Amino acid sequence: MLLTSYAAGEWVKPEAARPLHDAATGAVVAECGTVAPDVEAMADHARRVGGPALRAYGFHDRARMLKALATALNERKEELYALSFATGATRGDGAVDIEGGIGTLFSYASQGRKGLPDGKIYIDGAVESLSRSGAFKGVHVAVPLRGVAVAINAFNFPVWGMLEKLAQTMLAGVPIIVKPATETSYLTHACFRIMVESGFLPAGAAQLICGPVGNLLDRLGPQDAVSFTGSAATAAKLKANPNLLKNAVRFHAEQDSLNAAILGPDAAPGTPEWEMALREAAREITVKAGQKCTAIRRILLPRAHLDAFGAALSEWLAAARMGDPRDEATRLGALAGLGQKADVAAAAASIGAECETVWRGETPAALEAGAFLAPILFRCDDPLHAKAPHEVEAFGPVATLMPYEGAEEAAEIANRGGGALVASVFTHDEGFAAAMVEEAAAWHGRLYFADRDAGKEATGHGAPVPLMTHGGPGRAGGGEELGGVRGVLHYMQRTAVQASPRLLSAITGTYLAGAPGKAAPAHPFTRRFGELEIGETILTPSRTVTLEDIEHFAHFTGDTFYAHMDEAAAKANPFFPGRVAHGYLLLSFAAGLFVHPDPGPVLANTGLNGLSFQKPVSPGEEIAAHLTVKRKTRRNDSYGEVAWEVRIVNAAGEQVAEYELLTMVAH
Description:
single chain, alpha/beta, Aldehyde Dehydrogenase, Chain A, domain 1, Aldehyde Dehydrogenase, Chain A, domain 2, 3 domains, seven-stranded mixed beta sheet, globular
């Protein structure tokens, strides 16, 4: 199979190629190019064709596109599994990559429709009043970069690594050029081809380079971004590109790191936390043969438990059957290639020079020709004065046990890794957990706490989830991947926009307080989703709140708080002039003032956001409600969501309460 690049809408054959080998058998799997395609044309095509095509969609349309791509991949995932075995991955290993990648697309499709507006501009944070009267305000917005995102991925996750970046850039509205690691690029190529054949990718939205990138980085500018996953050495080389520095090109790095697992003092043999730590450590050492950026490299535990844990973990590792990943009985597959095997062996030798070997597996003679490496478990008795275990990463089935004395020392040892993607803490002790966050969070992108309460619902040490940021400080790269909307914003420009409320409402597509309203031609609850306009407002008739209303509400609901029932006690409270109406009574009266009783397009009230009370209402006061169409969001072919701004005012026009009401309205 000759791997072609997808450039400017066409599959392009390489001018020269080299063979890529099956990690387990050594057989040739594919041939990959050794000369870069026309990267200048690719970058131009992305900016000129892909960017406008994506920006023509709003966030929700892009989210629907992601869902369609995920569905297409899910329907053909067995093709990817069949090819994944050649990377050395077992069926279970492949699931982490393939199912994880497809799941990430589905997750971002969902997050895009829940966390982003049904439009093209994202409002980042609250509206700020920049003048006394409120006639001049400011808001931060985020819009898509007008360039291209270049995604350079590692060999260990040829599917997930691509899809996690593609999900964010596509949702942001930025075209992407994918550059997979050459060793396993045949799997990325197969995944990418499925997406192209699905027909759901807009022209120019995504391109693929199988082989070198040539001088692509030299052709990037201030509107472009580079996202890299891999080793710290490669990241440093890429980051130092003079053109990237000159043009301040955004660079996001997620690098391999020396992640730790920490057993709390309470996680003694026989406890649930001890058993969880054993399972997690064994899994992280053997899944994908330890070739995970999040894999556990250092295991910290009280010195008294070091021997017992080492012996127990050795038994778990010995039970992990090594063999051809195509064999269903195999639990430990091969490394990605012979070069990777040599690198891991060399790194393990460096660690072993400072540490004692607790257990070392044997590779069956029949597997010696493949990229197989048996697990190695080291022990470092003086981790505060050791160097190699904190500086050298063997990117394979290798880990080191380390003792600690007290929470502060445990954190200090974990932090010696110089910055990590994740540390797991196995403890049921609240104080120890709090201490770990206080002392170790600054050096870790994620802290994963596992105890008997979380149980099987916990995601696991090595499972970055799309909703949470995946990245870390220092050695881990100083960047972020994933993180839901946070990740999408990496490919957008945050801009402060300052204007009158009227202009800000028009710019953002969301009604903002202070903007003039529009008189509704009919009661808004009688108008369908497509008929309602942003800014449509009605002012309801007024209603007098009586003492009888307050007392009836108090007895009916059981809310007999003294401020509603005891005049003297209420007056003694500095916030109240005397007895006052319940806040929820005011909400109920407001609903009674603006609802329309007849059946109509309003299907359901689904929520209420941002409720606040500004001024108490005393018996005898009148209230009225302003109801304004604030925001509209399509949901499906049957209905959409309408957010209404509700302001409750007294007879003097003073606002006493405000909130956002959500309703489902038929098309």
